[in-house]
Amino acid sequence: MSRFPEIESELNRKRVAAEMDVIRLEEEAAKGNTLLDKGLTLLGKWMVSAGEKLRNRHHSSQEAHSANLVNKVA
Predict the structure, then answer these.
(1) pLDDT for residue 57 is more than 70
(2) At residue 28, what are phi and psi to the nearest 5 degrees?
(3) Following CA atoms 8, 14, 20, 24 in sequence, which dihedral angle do they give, to the nearest 10 degrees?
(4) How far apart are the C-alpha atoms of 24 and 39, rounded to whole Å?
C-alpha cells in the first residue's frame, strides 16, 4: 500500500511535532523550580526504575516456570 508523498510528509511532520512536545514537557518537568517539583521528579524516576526491575524479575520467573513445565511434560 503506497501513500501519496504529501500525506506521508504531513504524517511525518505531525510525528516530529508530537516528539518535540514530549521533549519540551520532559525538560520542563526536569527543571522544577521548587523543592517539591524536584522531589516529585526523583520519586517518579525511582518508581519507573523499580517497576522495570519488578517486570524483569517477574518475566524471568515466568520463563523459568514455563521451562519447568515443558521439562515435566517431556
Answers:
(1) yes
(2) -65, -40
(3) -170
(4) 19
